[in-house]
Structures are given as structure tokens and as C-alpha cells.
């Protein structure tokens, strides 16, 4: 169905009390909401905030101290705050755009509005590929946690398979409203695990990787003047990765009970995430310096590592099932949009839904297990696809809605915002190109040093 036709359908008012299923209620994305099917529009603003936080606080936060090590404390804080401000604006534009264009479900719809069918294909393909890789990264993160907690009791490939099975089972829950309670648990667990490490590195006399035969003096750098371009741009894209839940905010906003409450959820999410990232990055890097581990949970020694990963595992599981769910839901809606099977408990509905979650899980599992340099490849895909989905489209969205206003009356505010959008497009393009270059160099260096890991490896990946 074309965007134009969807826009005509979106003129039908969406009830603000859609959390209570009403026979015949119409939604511009899901169609007729009836009692004979899932209530997709059931997430409150607090649930929205925690889902937003959980798409971000997970894998990315564990690498922030390492990013600070590459940049130094002051540049690290400046970069983090800058990325936080830009992505918060991008996230805000998503909420505004969704209210003006109720028919928009994913970033591919934005691509079609901005660039026609080619834009839909490019952004839709980028969205699927990016989140499949992130789901695979989540599975590897779970395997690291299981290896750490069990002291590598069995083959790592088995743990990755277990992670995939768990992600499939819980990711197959049909609505974000029913997943939001899991997000609360996951968020609490991941925050607790990182706080344990933060406190531990502060009270110990030295980080686990530091030399034991000399007096320990923290070797943190205020500014790391000898950082290479590759190290610096990789650190910046690592921080972008920590805020790269932005493309998923389209899906989350679409399932809100009252979309007008989107901004309050966003403010809570970004405030908590940014304060937490700053605290973790500064404190852990201050006490560990160049001996900070990546992921950061291993920085305080084997005992704390086991305890922290024990708490982190539920958080890593929730992140991964969210990645699987959001990717599968995107494909599911594209396949059944406009059909009664989208909102009815029919055999077709269930077959397509389970097929989407199972297919997403299998592809993520195979990619994660079979590629020798998967972690570096995630960085490459993140720079090439994740970064431009957090910057350029949102600038285009603002220009799409506001460009015509400048033809009648060019105010100072309008000119400033046009300049801001141009800056966002240029900055996003620079990070995309620079981050891609840095990731390619890292992959080449990894191959020179070790040749990568074996496919379906049994080796312990938690050390």
C-alpha cells in the first residue's frame, strides 16, 4: 500500500484510551483493533521509557570505559554529551513525526516519504540487517555471561544456541506491552551488575589486569593526545552504538497507548541513560585507566566478574529478545499489513508471526556463530548502517515537515533549524565514513594478529 493511501487512512482519529480494546477502534498502522486478537496499543509511558532504555542500556554501556580510554576523560565526556544531545533531538523528532504521520510504523516509511521506493528499500534493508546483527551480538553477550558464571562449563557454541532458544521463546511474545515487565527486570539487573563493578573497582587497590609487582597508580588520561584517528573514531562510534536504539523508537511509539506522552518517556529515558553512562565511564576509567576490560564487567577480578555477570545475564537476555522481537515485528507487519490476519488470532497470524521470530533468531544465530570476526563486523555494520539511521533521516524528517514554511516566511528559528539539520546530515555522514574506515582497519588488524575465531567455536569467550 502506498504512503499516500496510508496518509488518507491516518486521518481516522486514534482514541487516546486505546489501552482498553474497543470493538471497531482503528489504528493507522495496525488497522481495526478487535477483541479477537492482540492489543498492540497497550504500552503506557513508563513502559515506553523502560523499553527505550533497554534498547540502549545493554551491550553498548559495557564498552564506554574503553572508549574513554581511547579518548581521555574530557574528550570522552564531551563526545558522550554531544552524541546524547544529537540522539535525543533525533528521538524527539520521531515522536513529533509519528503524531503528524500516524501511518508511519518504521524508518522505511520515512525513507519512502523522503526518497520514494528506493528510500524504503535502502532504509528498510538497513534496519533489518542492523538489528539482526545486534541480536547476534546479544546472543554472544549472553554466551560470555554464561561462560563467566559457569567458569566455561561447556562449549561456547552450546551457550550461543541456548541464548538463541531463549531469545526466540520470549521474543515471540506478541506485544511490547506484555514484554515491558521483562524490560523492567532486565534494566534493574544490568544496572545492578554495572554498579557492582563500579563499586568494586573503587574499593580495590588495583584493577584485575594491572601489574601485581609494583605500586599501583591510576594511569587515566585527561586528554589522550597520542590517540590515532582509527582509535578515536572507533571510540566515537562505540558511544554512538550505546545510543543506537533510535531506529527502534518508531516501533515502540507505534504501540503506545497514548502517543502524546512520548516526550515524557523520552526525557526520562535519555536522562537516566546519559547520567548512568557518564558515571560508569568516568568512575571505571578513573580507577582502571588503560587496564579497563572490554566488556567492563571483567575489570574487578574473577569473583566480581562472576557476580556481576550473574546479575547482568537477565539484562542481556531481555536486550536480545527485544532485538529479535522488534526485527520480527517489522517483517510481520510488512507481510500482513492491511490484512485481517494482522489483528486476529488466526492460523495465518500465528504461522507468520512464529515464522518471523524463528527466522530472525536463526539468521542472527548463524551470523553470530559462523563469522570469525563477528564482534568487529558488528562495529562495521553499526558504523555503516546504525549511525546513519540515528542522524540523517531525522534531519530529513524535520525538513520534510517544515521546508515549505520557509517559502512564506523565513524566521530566525527556521533558518537555525535548517542549519542544524544540515549539520546533522554532515556529522552523520562523517561518522558513517570514518567509523566504517576505523572498523575495516580493526578487522584487518584482528586477522593479522589471530585470524579471528573459529566458526561455532568452543573456546571460552569470557576471558
UniProtKB/TrEMBL annotation:
Protein name: Amino acid transporter transmembrane domain-containing protein
Any one GO molecular-function label of the UniProt entry: L-amino acid transmembrane transporter activity
Keywords: Membrane, Transmembrane, Transmembrane helix
Domain Amino acid transporter transmembrane per the UniProt entry, residue ranges: 44-440
UniProt key word Transmembrane: yes
Record field: compositional bias (Polar residues): 9-19
A Pfam family that the UniProt record links to this protein: Aa_trans
Topology of the protein relative to the lipid bilayer: Multi-pass membrane protein
Statement: the UniProt record of this protein carries the keyword Protein transport: no
InterPro entries: AA_transpt_TM
Family affiliation: Belongs to the amino acid/polyamine transporter 2 family.
Cellular component annotations (GO), alphabetically ordered: membrane
Transmembrane annotation, as ranges: 43-64, 76-97, 118-144, 150-170, 182-203, 232-253, 265-287, 307-332, 352-371, 377-400, 412-434
Primary location class: membrane
Ranges where the record places region Disordered: 1-21
Subcellular localization(s) per the UniProt record: Membrane
Amino acid at each position: 500500500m502506498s504512503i499516500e493511501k496510508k496518509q488518507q487512512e491516518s486521518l481516522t482519529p486514534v482514541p487516546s484510551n486505546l489501552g482498553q480494546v474497543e470493538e471497531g477502534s482503528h489504528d493507522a498502522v495496525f488497522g481495526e483493533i478487535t477483541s479477537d486478537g492482540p492489543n498492540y496499543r497497550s504500552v503506557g509511558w513508563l513502559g515506553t521509557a523502560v523499553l527505550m532504555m533497554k534498547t540502549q542500556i545493554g551491550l553498548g554501556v559495557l564498552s564506554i570505559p574503553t572508549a574513554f580510554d581511547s579518548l581521555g576523560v574530557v574528550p570522552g565526556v564531551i563526545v558522550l554529551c554531544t552524541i546524547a544531545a544529537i540522539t535525543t533531538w533525533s528521538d524527539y523528532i520521531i515522536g513529533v513525526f509519528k503524531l503528524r504521520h500516524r501511518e508511519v510504523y518504521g524508518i522505511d516509511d520515512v525513507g519512502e516519504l523522503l526518497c520514494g521506493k528506493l528510500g524504503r528499500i535502502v532504509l528498510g534493508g538497513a534496519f533489518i540487517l542492523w538489528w539482526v546483527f545486534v541480536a547476534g551480538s546479544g546472543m554472544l553477550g549472553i554466551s560470555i555471561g554464561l561462560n563467566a558464571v559457569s567458569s566455561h562449563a561447556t562449549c561456547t557454541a552450546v551457550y550461543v544456541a541456548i541464548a538463541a532458544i531463549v531469545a526466540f521463546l520470549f521474543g515471540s511474545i506478541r506485544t511490547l506491552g506484555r514484554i515491558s515487565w521483562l524490560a523492567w527486570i532486565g534494566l534493574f539487573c544490568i544496572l545492578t551488575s554495572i554498579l557492582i563493578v563500579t563499586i568494586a573497582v573503587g574499593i580495590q587497590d588495583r584493577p584485575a589486569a594491572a601489574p601485581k609487582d609494583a605500586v599501583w597508580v591510576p594511569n587515566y588520561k585527561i586528554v589522550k593526545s597520542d590517540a590515532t584517528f582509527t582509535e578515536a573514531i572507533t571510540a566515537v562510534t562505540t558511544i554512538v552504538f550505546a545510543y543506537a536504539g533510535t531506529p527502534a523508537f518508531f516501533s515502540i511509539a507505534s504501540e503506545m497507548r497514548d502517543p502524546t506522552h512520548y516526550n515524557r518517556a523520552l526525557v526520562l529515558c535519555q536522562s537516566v541513560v546519559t547520567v548512568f553512562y557518564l558515571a560508569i565511564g568516568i568512575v571505571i576509567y578513573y580507577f582502571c585507566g588503560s587496564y579497563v576490560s572490554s566488556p567492563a564487567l571483567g575489570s574487578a577480578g574473577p569473583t566480581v566478574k562472576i557476580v556481576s555477570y550473574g546479575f547482568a545475564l537477565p539484562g542481556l537476555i531481555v536486550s536480545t529478545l527485544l532485538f529479535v522481537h522488534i526485527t520480527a515485528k517489522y517483517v510481520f507487519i510488512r507481510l500482513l499489513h492491511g490484512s485481517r490476519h494482522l489483528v486476529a488470532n488466526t492460523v495465518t497470524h500465528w504461522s507468520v508471526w512464529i515464522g518471523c521470530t524463528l527466522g530472525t533468531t536463526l539468521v542472527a544465530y548463524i551470523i553470530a556463530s559462523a563469522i570469525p570476526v563477528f564482534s568487529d563486523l558488528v562495529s562495521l555494520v553499526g558504523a555503516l548502517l546504525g549511525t546513519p539511521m540515528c542522524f540523517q533521516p531525522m534531519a530529513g524528517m524535520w525538513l520534510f515537515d517544515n521546508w515549505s514554511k520557509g517559502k512564506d516566511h523565513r524566521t530566525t528559528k527556521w533558518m537555525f533549524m535548517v542549519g542544524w539539520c544540515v549539520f546533522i546530515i554532515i556529522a552523520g555522514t562523517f561518522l558513517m565514513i570514518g567509523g566504517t574506515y576505523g572498523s575495516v582497519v580493526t578487522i584487518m588488524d584482528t586477522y593479522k594478529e589471530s585470524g579471528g575465531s573459529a566458526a561455532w567455536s568452543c573456546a571460552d569467550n569470557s576471558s
